[in-house]
Amino acid sequence: MSDYTASAARLGLGTLVELGQNDAAPLASPPTPETFLSVGEVTDVAKSGAKSDTPDVTNHQSPDGFREFISGLKEAGEVQVSGNWVDPSISPPDNFITQEVVEALFNSGERRNWKIVVPPAAGEMDSPGYFSFKAIVNSFGDSNFGTDKQINYSFKLKISGKYTYVAA
Fold first, then answer.
1. Cβ contact 113:20 at 8 Å
2. Is the pTM of this model over 0.85?
3. How far apart are CA 86 and CA 77, in angstroms?
4. How many CB atoms lie within 10 A of CB 119?
5. Domain 16-167 has CATH 2.30.110
6. Cα angle vertex 32, ends 30, 47, to 5°?
7. Which helix (H) or strand (E) holds 104?
8. pLDDT value of residue 1
9. pLDDT digits (tens, 9 = 90+) for 86-137
10. Most exposed among 4, 69, 76, 145, judged by the fewest C-beta atoms under 10 Å?
11. CA–CA separation, 42 vs 149, rounded Å?
């Protein structure tokens, strides 16, 4: 007999994509952590899978004529973010940034700290944690102007280094 009682899956509604503000003061007394602000009007977040290079190390002694491989450098992947386009003349709510901030990061090539905050499930008060990573904005501006849809935009974050989950 199984101990399974019900799925622990959760909806993505309420997920936040947050950008670090480069304002940490680790040497201050007391030290202050970096502040994060959410990207406004995000509608979809999708992370590609991590992958590893596989250098071919086949040699004249490789058994049975089969190629041999070893695990090489790893890559954490990319995060594709889509959202509703918002007129730049409209001020965002407190603790949110606009698409123009993301576009400026694309133009500068600056690598920054990012978080994807997992939303609380039904009955939970707080997020169980977040995914943390450094990234550059390597794609920005794909938009859709459908006659019967909202105007949207998207950008991609190229993860630099390791992608980790941090429990709350």
1. yes
2. yes
3. 28
4. 15
5. yes
6. 155
7. helix 99-108
8. 67
9. 888 888 888 899 899 999 999 999 999 999 999 999 889 999 999 999 999 9
10. 4
11. 15
The answer to whether the CB of 157 falls within 8 A of the CB of 148 is no
Task: Kindly state the helix (H) or strand (E) to which residue 142 belongs, with its residue range.
Answer: strand 129-144
For residues 95, 101, 103, 108, the Cα torsion angle rounded to the nearest 10 degrees is -130
pLDDT in tens, 23-50: 989 888 888 999 999 999 999 999 999 9
- Mention every residue, 6+ apart, whose C-beta is less than 8 A from residue 75: 50, 51, 52, 53, 159
Distances (CA, A) of 10 to 15, 122, 145, 147, 163: 11, 8, 31, 32, 21
Which residue is listed with tokens 């965002």? 92
